[in-house]
């Protein structure tokens, strides 16, 4: 697995994702919590990336702990907010305490192998307070793969381009491959494996731990992922 976009070019990752509606995602979470003062409410963000959601949760009044296994992404996130950051991730992580809210936004779960889902859910539930809320999504990945996609845009350093193709691996996963052309004229190849989980599989894993599960169609209009809101 090679993920240079995450490790060496997190600023370029931010440019590529600049159209994403992070405010909408955070509002989705806050809207589903009990009304009242959120100051001091403990929130754990799993897979925080470059910290765009993180800083918004901090600004909303949460006491945020964020985990991210990639040092490049985590270092960039630290420049944006003063949350507590840890190098860790699913399917298990060694973080003390329990949290009122746990979030894993934008396909964090899809990075897991099918065999890791149960352990990941167990880890999340173990860190959730009684009455706590867990929010994460299932990306609508095509099990049969995709047509080659081209993304062209601009960063602070100039124009970039990214070509992405996903191919089935034969074991229920997708090989996610991209070629990224940097503003400086260089290019690199990234690859990782993703899992196109079925919604019923995720819902069953949550229900087995006694959580009340509500699947919702997206964080907002035109978002085609399934968001799971689970309460302990």
From TrEMBL:
It holds the Pfam family Methyltransf_25. Residues 44-132 form the Methyltransferase domain. CDD domains: AdoMet_MTases. One of its GO terms (biological process) is methylation. One of its GO terms (molecular function) is methyltransferase activity. SUPFAM superfamilies: S-adenosyl-L-methionine-dependent methyltransferases. InterPro entries: Methyltransf_25, SAM-dependent_MTases_sf. Keywords: Methyltransferase, S-adenosyl-L-methionine, Transferase. This is Methyltransferase domain-containing protein. It comes from Halovenus aranensis.
